[in-house]
Structures are given as structure tokens and as C-alpha cells.
Specification:
The complex is a heterodimer of chains A (684) and B (140). By secondary structure, chain A is an alpha+beta fold. Chain A is 62% helix and 12% strand. By secondary structure, chain B is an alpha+beta fold. Classes of the chains: A alpha+beta (684), B alpha+beta (140).
Chain lengths: 684, 140
């Protein structure tokens, strides 16, 4: 299998080089046969990498511990599902995973892009193949080959890190990878547009859906990462501003900025240079994220170990930055804006500020993440900044962004009139004020959460108003029932109303994040029968009584399970179990050997108001006396809810159908009609 | 004023406030990240460098961990090979903090005048021990 795997990697490398050289040689102009050869090389790379992936999976499933990777990340007693995900659990396997998915996306881009963009496609193939070649080359030449063999065959493997033995871990990394990887396609289209000098909005139409796909994967991946951190790491929260978390947030921020500013380019022909810079920057940040994760230059809970693979990524990062910005510079004069900004009080201006904020947030996150390195280089001492820094900087910026989330969609293009402002904002501002006043009356005194929730009220007011006005117009114009009108409204203006649903999802995130300002925590050492009390931010009093510890063997682990009896306001409310797990593998003699450090399984009971979060930290000297940490975390459930809403909205915006240009234009006009009808007159 | 100019003013305002927030944030929340050798050099050069919030990155001296479960206190010694400091911490340590040899930790807290590092957070880095062994085995 390793022979086949190695052969497939080499084949992918050669096909990739062939395609890239042919594409950049420009020999395909007026030569359909050469252009076809470029396209086919993309499919060939994909086929070769599929063969390599199957070879690795076969090795994993067959427990071929002579393959170093299989030995290092699996064991005979590893549950089957985790055998599957062991493919991307380690550095080497994840590189192969990356390469095969990239080649899949590259092939899909070739196959699915409409023929009218044919002049871009060989360049697109050239860029995607170059990136794939880089990943394959790293595997083959930097000692990261997943098909490396050991000089002997161990009886059993080392097993998978228990923190990775979690259902979330089966989908969280691939989701993030899919997000990171798919950014390559918009980047390839941007490069193709620059190379071919076809700098109208064509390349944007060709790649916009890819950008949305990438954005959606990244959003889901980040949210799953939060969920994994929350249930598996056991420190009580879901976001710690860890460098690797930041690395995933950075491209998300610039991508979100792009998804907004691209609308200005489509409608008004402005911001062409800015948009291209954002696409390139997003791609660079995704490679940078990979570098951070793999190089170990910045201490993080879940980076791969220090290895020289990271430096290949650094070199690649610099190469791409130089090439793409040089290319952008040479095409600079072709990217003149069609019109100038007409008014500060316009949707364009709101979007411009929104972009500045996104990029500002991205910059501050990047700065904070790199600060230890920067300070050491400049001042000679390493200074680190942690969550307090990121919160301090990003809470005000996030709140400003929230304000713009409410303003942007309602304000008129070009120049808003006073009537426009009054008509659009009276209701939402009222909602926000009422929410803030109500919460203040209920005793919320902390400024940041109060502002967040008040602004959330304002933004939800704008979204509700948009949906209501659109629906009402349809009811009047077509005599539809509310449900039908709503369905048609969203279905025929997917981009716009899908976007609002995404905003609603973001809003729910913000509301939930602010809730964490009120979390409470208590540590205690309890003998069986003893209890502690904890008062929750929603005013409930919880009593936690330690029942006892039981020990048993389960799958590939020994479990110590500590049970807590919960009472809410004196009323019994069930039991919650938290576990300490010690995983083991079986050696040649058939005896069990402990593998890895013990791991904690947090006991969580999630609720709409607050989560009970119990960590069993260990028993005292082998007795049934247990050390616990109890957390009450408000509104955590809403983070996951926000994720679902966001994903749902994202799916609506990119749902195929109505896909041709003519149809989408018709839809846009239909939406415009609704706007006019509701506005009475005033076509801006 | 032209709208373009007005926008530029707004943009400069935003950029300036981002810059201000970053500078302010670093000033107020930045903490030193030192190795024991660097910390020793600091305290020698500046005798007032005690009770300053900092992070200390080092390895736990094998066998030095003492746990007082009843009060959830953990005492241990960290070293970078040249200098070492005793550390005391109250609270729950992460799973990765074990008695196994060669665990790397980052402790956040203050060095007291008594020469003991009073930690408020303990982060243990996992994996490196494991993967280093793995490399050794692979090369054998």
C-alpha cells in the first residue's frame, strides 16, 4: 500500500507540474487541445490523490503498524469511527487530506464553471495546481510523507490522543480544512482575472459562490471548534483567543469583509483594488493559519509539534505574497473605480466602514497573536497578551460592527434622505431602546453586555422590519397568505434575505457571547453526601451533592465516573456525571498499558438560560472524596443556535437555481419592485 | 467637504481608534513571558522586579510535584536546566499536567519576595513529549 501511495503522490506531483507549466506558458491561447490538456491534468491530479488517500485509509483500517503514521495515530482497540478520522489526526495525514480536497475543489471548479468564463479557466487550473504541487512536495521532500515505513512492525499502535476521541473532532478539523482549502478557488479566480486582464465583474460572478462555500465551511468549522473546546477541554468556556483559534478567525474576518464589499463592486463598480487585495489577503491568512498551526512558533494548546514543515509554509507565504501583490500592482491602472462616493450617509459608506472594521479587527487579532514574536524581535523581551487584550480591543469594535449591521441594509444606496432615515430607523431604534431599558430595570449594570443586548434589539428590529415590509408587500400585490408570501420573498431574493438570516445568526452569537460576562464558578472538594451551593446569574440557587465515584472499563479506556445530584432552588433536578478517563493500548504480551495522560469528560447539562458545567478533577488519594469545579455558564446554548441560524442563512444565499445571470437579474428587479412598492415612491 | 474627503476623515478615525485600542490594550494587559534564567537575570538587575504579573515557561522537575488534595494545592519546581523556581498553585490543574517526565508548563502569576512563584494559572503543553519519543522511535 505504501508503494502505491508513494507512486500516487509522485504522479500527482508530475501531473500538477505539467498542468501549471502549461497554464502559465500561455500556449493554450487559441489552442483548445492544449487548454483541454490543462483541464485534464487537474482531473489527473485529483485521481492520483484519491488513490493515495485510499492507500492511507487501507493501511489504517488494516492496522498496518509498519506504516509509521498508522502506528503513531491509531491502535487495535480504537473505535471504528476514529479510525476513519485518524486520517487527518496527524500532521502528515492532514497534509494529504488537504491536498486531496484541494484537488477535488480544483476539479469541481473546472467542471462546474460556465463556459463563458473559459478564458479564465486555464489560469485557474495553473494556480490550483501550483498550490496542490506545493502540498504534495511538502509531503515528499520535507519528511512529512504519510507512507513512511518503520524498520520493524510494532504489535500495536500508539493510539489516538483522547482529546481527539470526540465526535466533534471527527467533523471539526475537516470543516475548518474545507474552509481554508476552498479559499484557494476564489484566489485562483482573482489571479486568473489579473493574468488575463479580464477585470470586469465576470471573475466575481464566477467565484462568488465559492467564496460563500468557503465562508460557510469556515463558520461551521469555527463554531464546531468552540463546541469541541467547550465539551472536551474542560476549562469552562468556548473561546480562549488561542493562536490557533485566532488563525481560523483571521481569514473568516477578511472573507466576511469581502462578501460585503463585493456588493459595492457589483452595484457601483467601486472598490476593485480593495476587493482583489482582500481575496489575496484572505488566501495569505489561510496559509498563515496553517503555518501557525504547524510550526509551533507560537505556543498554543493544539498546535502540531514544532517541525520544519512550518518553514516551508512560511517560504510559500512570502512567495505568494510577493507574486500576487506584484501582479496586482502591474494591473493597478486597469482597476480604476467607475464612480466616486457620493455621500457619507449612504449604503456604500456604511459598507466601507464595515470593511474597515472587519479589517481592523483582523489586524488587532493578528497583532495580538504575533505580539510575543514582535516584542521579542524589537525589544528583546517576550511580552504576551491574552484574552483581556483581545476583549478590550474587540468589544468596542464588535459593538460598532453591530451598529453597522443594523444600519447597512436599511440605508439607501448613493445618498440617503432624511425621510429615508426616519422611515427606516424609527422602529428599530425604538426596539433597541426598549430592550436596553428593560434590561437595565431588571438589574443589568455591566455596560458592555447592556450595550450588546440593546444593539441586538436594534438590529433584530431592522431585520424584522425588512421581513415584515417585504412580506406585506407581497400579500398586497399577489394576495398571498403570510407563509406563502414569506417563502416567496426569501426564495426569490435569496441573497438579500439569506443575508439577513446570517445577520440574525451573528446577532444570536453576540447575545450569547455577552452572556458569558456573567458566568459563575466554584471549586470544591467533597466527600460523598457533602454539597455546595452556587447562585446562578438568572437568580436560581443550585445545590450540588456529591453521590460517589464508580469505576469501570469501557471500550479502550478505564473510567472513573463521579456523580453529582443537582437541586435547583431546593427541588431535585436529576444527576450529572463527569468522568476521568485513562486510555490504554495492548502490548505484545497481551497486557494493557496506559496511553496518554488521563482525560476529563465534562458533565454538561445545557439549557436555554444557562448550562451546568461540572468538571471532576480527581479523587483524593484513591478515596471517594472528589475534587470538583462547578460552572454556571449563561446563554451558551445560544452560541450553537446562532451557528445553526448562520449556516441556514448561508445555505439560502448560495442555494443553486435561479442561477443564470438573467434569472438573478430578474430576481434583483423583483426585489427592487418590492422596495419601491413599500417605499411608496422615492427611487433614491 | 467632498464626500470622499469626509469618508477619509471617518476612515482615519476608525484606523486611529483601532491603533489606540491596540496600543492601550498591550500597555494594560501585556505580561512578560520569561524563562527561569531570564527571570533570574531580571531580579538581579532590578531588585524591585517582584510581584509583577508574568508568565514563566519551563519544564517541571521530575518528581517535584506535591499535591495537597484537600485544599487543591499543587507545589512543584520548574527549571530550564540552568535556573529553577518553586511554584505554588491553588486550583485544578489541566489533565496534561501529570507526573510524567518532561512536561512543559507555562505558569502565570507573580514571583514573591520569598522566592516562590505564586501561580494563578497553569498551562501544560502536551504532545511534545509524545511526538519527540515518536521521532526517536522512528529513527531507531
Amino acid at each position: 500500500m505504501t508503494l502505491l501511495g508513494n507512486f500516487a503522490l509522485w504522479a500527482a506531483l508530475l501531473f500538477g507540474i505539467w498542468g501549471a507549466v502549461l497554464a502559465f506558458s500561455n500556449r493554450w491561447h487559441g489552442r483548445p487541445d492544449v487548454a483541454l490538456s490543462v483541464t485534464r491534468s487537474v482531473y489527473a491530479v485529483f485521481a492520483a490523490l484519491v488513490v493515495a488517500s485510499v492507500a492511507l485509509w487501507k493501511g489504517i483500517i488494516a492496522h498496518d503498524f509498519n506504516i509509521e503514521y498508522v502506528w503513531a495515530y491509531t491502535s487495535r482497540n480504537l473505535p471504528a469511527g476514529y479510525l476513519f478520522s485518524a486520517f487527518w489526526a496527524g500532521q502528515k495525514g492532514s497534509l494529504l487530506f488537504w491536498a486531496v480536497v484541494l484537488s477535488l475543489f480544483a476539479a469541481l471548479a473546472q467542471a462546474m464553471t460556465p463556459r463563458r468564463y473559459a478564458a479564465l479557466m486555464p489560469y485557474v487550473a495553473g494556480v490550483t495546481s501550483s498550490v496542490t504541487v506545493f502540498f504534495v512536495a511538502v509531503m515528499l521532500f520535507s519528511g512529512a510523507n504519510p507512507f513512511e515505513r518503520l524498520p520493524f512492525t510494532p504489535a500495536d499502535g500508539r493510539g489516538l490522543n483522547p482529546q481527539l476521541q470526540n465526535p466533534g473532532m471527527m467533523i471539526h478539523p475537516p470543516m475548518l480544512y474545507l474552509g481554508y482549502i476552498s479559499i484557494t478557488i476564489p484566489f485562483a479566480f482573482a489571479m486568473a482575472a489579473l493574468l488575463s486582464r479580464k477585470l470586469d465583474t465576470g471573475w466575481i460572478h464566477a467565484m462568488r459562490r465559492w467564496m460563500l462555500v468557503s465562508w460557510l465551511f469556515l463558520s461551521i468549522g469555527i463554531t464546531l471548534g468552540m463546541w469541541w473546546a467547550y465539551v472536551e477541554l474542560g476549562w469552562g468556556g468556548y473561546w480562549a483567543w488561542d493562536p490557533v483559534e485566532n488563525a481560523s478567525l483571521l481569514p473568516w474576518l477578511t472573507m466576511t469583509a469581502f462578501l460585503h464589499s463585493v456588493m459595492i463592486q457589483e452595484k457601483r463598480g467601486m472598490l476593485k483594488r480593495w476587493n482583489l487585495s482582500l481575496v489575496v489577503g484572505t488566501f495569505l491568512l489561510s496559509i498563515f493559519g496553517t503555518f501557525i498551526t504547524r510550526s509551533g512558533v507560537i505556543a498554543s494548546v493544539h498546535s502540531f509539534t514544532q517541525s520544519n514543515v512550518g518553514y516551508y509554509f512560511l517560504a510559500f507565504l512570502f512567495l505568494i505574497a510577493v507574486v500576487s501583490y506584484t501582479l496586482l500592482y502591474t494591473r493597478w491602472p486597469l482597476l480604476e473605480a467607475d464612480v466616486e462616493l457620493e455621500s457619507m450617509v449612504s449604503r456604500e459608506a456604511a459598507f466601507l466602514f464595515n470593511n474597515l472594521l472587519f479589517v481592523g479587527i483582523a489586524f488587532s487579532v493578528l497583532w495580538g497573536t504575533l505580539f510575543p514574536i514582535l516584542s521579542e524581535a524589537v525589544r528583546g523581551t517576550k511580552i504576551t497578551v491574552g484574552p483581556p487584550f483581545f476583549n478590550k480591543v474587540n468589544i468596542p469594535l464588535g459593538l460598532l460592527l453591530l451598529v453597522l449591521t443594523g444600519i447597512g441594509p436599511l440605508i439607501a444606496w448613493r445618498k440617503a434622505s432624511v425621510q429615508n432615515l426616519q422611515r427606516q430607523f424609527a422602529f428599530p431604534v425604538g426596539v433597541g431602546a426598549v430592550v436596553a431599558a428593560l434590561l437595565a430595570a431588571l438589574g443589568v449594570r455591566e455596560l458592555a453586555p447592556l450595550m450588546t443586548w440593546g444593539l441586538a434589539g436594534f438590529v433584530s428590529g431592522t431585520i424584522t422590519q425588512e421581513f415584515w415590509r417585504g412580506t406585506r408587500a407581497r400579500i398586497r400585490m399577489h394576495g398571498e397568505t403570510i407563509a406563502v408570501a414569506l417563502a416567496h420573498l426569501v426564495g426569490r431574493n435569496r441573497r438579500r434575505y439569506g443575508g439577513y438570516i446570517v445577520h440574525l445568526g451573528m446577532l444570536v452569537y453576540f447575545v450569547a457571547f455577552a452572556g458569558m460576562a456573567f458566568k459563575v464558578q466554584r471549586e470544591a472538594t467533597l466527600k460523598p453526601g457533602e454539597s455546595v451551593e452556587l447562585k446562578s446569574p438568572f437568580g436560581h440557587t443550585y445545590t450540588f451533592t456529591h453521590v460517589g465515584i464508580s469505576q469501570f472499563k469501557q471500550f479502550n479506556r478505564y473510567v472513573s465516573a463521579a456523580t453529582i445530584e443537582v437541586a435547583r432552588d431546593g427541588v431535585p433536578d436529576g444527576r450529572i456525571v463527569s468522568e476521568k478517563r485513562q486510555h490504554f493500548t495492548v502490548n505484545e504480551l497481551g497486557t494493557e498499558e496506559a496511553s496518554f495522560e488521563p482525560s476529563t469528560e465534562v458533565g454538561i447539562r445545557s439549557g436555554l438560560q444557562e448550562d451546568i458545567y461540572i468538571v471532576f478533577a480527581g479523587a483524593v488519594n484513591g478515596t471517594e472524596e472528589a475534587v470538583y469545579r462547578f460552572n454556571i455558564n449563561p446563554l451558551v446554548w445560544w452560541v450553537w443556535a446562532g451557528g445553526f441560524i448562520l449556516a441556514f442563512g448561508g445555505l439560502i444565499t448560495m442555494w443553486p437555481g435561479g442561477g443564470t445571470m438573467a434569472a438573478s437579474r430578474r430576481n434583483a428587479q423583483a426585489g427592487y419592485g418590492v422596495e419601491l412598492a413599500t417605499a411608496g415612491v422615492e427611487p433614491q | 467637504m467632498k464626500p470622499g474627503t469626509k469618508f477619509l476623515v471617518g476612515a482615519v478615525l476608525i484606523v486611529a481608534s483601532v491603533g489606540f485600542l491596540i496600543a492601550q490594550g498591550v500597555k494594560e494587559t501585556g505580561v512578560y513571558f520569561l524563562t527561569p534564567t531570564e527571570l533570574a537575570a531580571k531580579t538581579t538587575a532590578d531588585p524591585t522586579f517582584y510581584d509583577v504579573g508574568l508568565k514563566l515557561g519551563a519544564k517541571v522537575v521530575p518528581g517535584s510535584i506535591k499535591r495537597v488534595s484537600a485544599v487543591q494545592q499543587v507545589d512543584f519546581v520548574v527549571s530550564d536546566g540552568a535556573k529553577q523556581y518553586p511554584v505554588t498553585y491553588r486550583g485544578i490543574v489541566p489533565d496534561t499536567f501529570t507526573d510524567a517526565n518532561d512536561i512543559e508548563v507555562i505558569v502565570e502569576g507573580r514571583l514573591g519576595r520569598d522566592g516562590v512563584f505564586h501561580a494563578t494559572e497553569v498551562f501544560a503543553k502536551c504532545g511534545s513529549r509524545y511526538e519527540a519519543e515518536l521521532d526517536k522511535a522512528a529513527k531507531a
